[in-house]
């Protein structure tokens, strides 16, 4: 447990930030799941609207320091590829399969 007043204050601040970040991450994951469900159900319009929402949330997360910029960019890019494939009428791209006998690490 902290002893000095500054350490006590720091602990209070850390807890507030942790709870705020936890709430934000939960909100983003919920929207991410909704988008994934919309893509798998072939709902084009919903997917495009949700993609804008999810991309915006990732950008806000980067701005707040919750996510690294490259992580957010990678996630947004992958989701955009799936939504664009859906809009073009192609089935969503599946990850490449491994040659027989090999296992993912």
Tally of separate domains:
1
Which stretches are low in confidence, meaning pLDDT under 50 for 5 or more residues running? none
Could you give me the name of the CATH homologous superfamily? Ribosomal protein S20
From the N-terminal CA to the C-terminal CA, the straight-line distance is 39 Å
Mean pLDDT: 89
Order of helices and strands: HHH
- Number of H/I helices: 3
CATH topology: Methane Monooxygenase Hydroxylase, Chain G, domain 1
- Class from secondary-structure proportions: mainly alpha
Fraction of helical residues: over 70%
Number of strands: 0
What proportion of the residues form beta strands (DSSP E)?
Answer: under 5%
Explained architecture:
The protein is an all-alpha fold. It has one domain: Methane Monooxygenase Hydroxylase, Chain G, domain 1, CATH 1.20.58. It contains 3 helices and no strands. It has helices at 5-40, 44-64, 69-88. Helix 1 (5-40) runs antiparallel to helix 2. It is elongated. It starts with a helix and ends in a 17-residue tail after the last helix. The model has no long low-confidence stretch (mean pLDDT 89).
Features:
mainly alpha; 73% helix; 105 residues; 3 helices; Methane Monooxygenase Hydroxylase, Chain G, domain 1; elongated
Write the layout of secondary structure elements.
Elements: H1 5-40, H2 44-64, H3 69-88
Helix pairs in contact: 1-2, 2-3
